[in-house]
């Protein structure tokens, strides 16, 4: 005899042997980014005749049994599963309980149901609600809007730089930015390329609202699915309201803005990138104003005159570990932490000797003297006027992000080059005006690479300190930074 039916809203914690008749709306893989992307589970979203949304999950070791049966949009009978309390964070539905597949779970596809089960269900939220949810990690709402811009680094196929930003105009008029990184960015482009034309309406499900630098970003998550134009009834409804159903005769303006190979970013985008993207080595351009010199760790260190690495203080000498020299000749080197800001956010940038010497036209050894040797060495660390003078000026910085930038403890970005403002940087990037158009200077094409070297200041990457700040006796920089630098920084980076 068949087990009795159960509605999703009536589920109670424990094992359920009743039968739920549901539609599988979406499924996706949940991976652990901290364990090399290891598959944790296949998660899914069900809906029943009462439009109750409920999340389901099958663990990695069981998912193969069910995987081939999963078909988005299909109807199923589901029985013999565990009912557990829903996670209170990153919610895709409001149901208090979730479904977990166990070894006895039966999931059978059915071709039709006597029950009118919705074919789609989205959790669109008004702009004000998105703002309320931002940075809370509580809800992953769905979003629908008219596409006004696509910015992407993926068309360049740069390894590790997959990034797509969609600007969507909500029906209420606000513009929001949906950002996708790495595999999600790839998935977008796969769909985009196969679609054959540029969509006018995009639905993105399960996005995580975040406010960075005063701007609302909707970050795609592993649960994010994208639907174009009339692929959904909700999308079609909006699509049909657009002038000429979105296909204005004679209109051929592409919404795609190709990004530069080394991409300009605002500070808020940079700060957001290190929070949301997977760890990677990547370079960006950032135009920002120097608002101050951070002096709590000094502006210089005692380096090796040969290799510029930080010297170890001995009783009556300096040792350079890098040169294996126990009687190294000392030279004062810049290590300057800059407070910077643009109109989106603030950040800390770290500049080393080569860049600072060129920027100020003054060697560190001309700005201050090392008096004494070894443990007795002293340096007048009062801020030189040449450094104080750069406060208030705006430059375009090329920043190299290493893995350690993606851990929250390392929010200082190392400068690899400094350019005069706007010599090469079409800024600001990823900015959309009130009416949803992209400013002309944000649409500049690829920068000829050779021009960078002509105006830029090049870092050899060899003047990074290695041990404690000898000039001030302050604590050493975290050792991991240096390890990463040594592994990843070419000895003569960016000489063009
Ligand atoms: Zn040395």
From TrEMBL:
Residues 441-496 are annotated as: Disordered. Belongs to the replication factor A protein 1 family. This is (rape) hypothetical protein. Residues 456-471 have a biased composition (Polar residues). One of its GO terms (molecular function) is DNA binding. InterPro entries: Euk_RPA1_DBD_C (IPR047192), NA-bd_OB-fold (IPR012340), Rep_factor-A_C (IPR013955). It comes from Brassica napus (Rape). It holds the Pfam family Rep_fac-A_C. Keywords: DNA-binding, Metal-binding, Zinc, Zinc-finger. The keyword Nucleotidyltransferase does not apply. Residues 285-410 form the Replication factor A C-terminal domain. SUPFAM superfamilies: Nucleic acid-binding proteins. Residues 487-496 have a biased composition (Basic and acidic residues).
């Amino acid at each position: 005899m068949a087990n009795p039916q159960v509605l999703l809203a009536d589920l109670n914690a424990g094992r359920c042997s009743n039968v739920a008749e549901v539609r599988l709306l979406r499924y996706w893989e949940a991976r652990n980014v901290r364990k090399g992307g290891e598959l944790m589970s296949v998660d899914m979203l069900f809906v029943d005749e009462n439009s109750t949304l409920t999340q389901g999950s099958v663990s990695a070791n069981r998912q193969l049994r069910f995987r081939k049966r999963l078909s988005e949009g299909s109807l199923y009978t589901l029985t013999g599963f565990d009912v557990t309390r829903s996670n209170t964070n990153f919610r895709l539905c409001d149901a208090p309980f979730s479904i977990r597949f166990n070894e006895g779970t039966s999931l059978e596809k059915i071709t039709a149901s006597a029950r009118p089960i919705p074919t789609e269900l989205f959790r669109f939220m008004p702009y004000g609600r998105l703002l309320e949810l931002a940075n809370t990690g509580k809800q992953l709402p769905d979003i629908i809007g008219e596409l006004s811009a696509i910015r992407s680094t993926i068309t360049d196929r740069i390894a590790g730089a997959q990034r797509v930003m969609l600007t969507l105009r909500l029906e209420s008029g606000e513009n929001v930015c949906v950002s996708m990184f790495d595999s999600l960015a790839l998935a977008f482009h796969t769909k985009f390329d196969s679609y054959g034309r540029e969509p006018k309406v995009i639905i993105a499900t399960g996005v995580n609202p975040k406010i960075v630098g005063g701007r609302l970003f909707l970050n795609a998550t592993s649960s994010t699915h994208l639907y174009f134009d009339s692929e959904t009834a909700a999308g079609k409804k909006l699509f049909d309201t657009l002038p000429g159903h979105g296909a204005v005769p004679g209109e051929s303006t592409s919404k795609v803005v190709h990004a530069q190979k080394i991409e300009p970013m605002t500070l808020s985008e940079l700060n957001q990138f290190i929070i949301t993207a997977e760890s990677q080595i990547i370079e960006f351009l950032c135009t920002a104003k120097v608002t101050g010199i951070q002096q709590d760790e000094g502006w210089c260190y005692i380096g090796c005159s040969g290799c510029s690495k930080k010297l170890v203080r001995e009783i009556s000498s300096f040792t350079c570990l890098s040169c294996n020299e126990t009687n190294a000749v000392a030279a004062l080197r810049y290590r300057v932490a800059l407070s910077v800001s643009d109109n989106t956010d603030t950040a800390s940038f770290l500049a080393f000797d080569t860049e600072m010497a060129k920027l100020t036209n003054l060697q560190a050894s001309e700005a201050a003297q090392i008096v004494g040797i070894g443990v007795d060495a002293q340096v007048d660390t009062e801020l030189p006027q040449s450094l104080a003078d750069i406060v208030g000026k705006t430059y375009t910085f090329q920043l190299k992000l290493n893995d350690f930038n993606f851990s929250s403890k390392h929010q200082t970005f190392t400068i690899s080059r400094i350019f005069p403002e706007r010599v090469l940087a079409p800024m600001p990037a990823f900015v959309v005006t009130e009416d949803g158009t992209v400013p002309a200077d944000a649409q500049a094409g690829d920068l000829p690479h050779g021009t960078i070297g002509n105006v830029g200041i090049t870092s050899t990457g060899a003047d990074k300190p290695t041990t404690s700040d000898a000039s001030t006796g302050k604590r050493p920089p975290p050792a991991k930074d240096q390890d990463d630098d040594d592994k990843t920084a070419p000895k003569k980076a960016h000489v063009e």
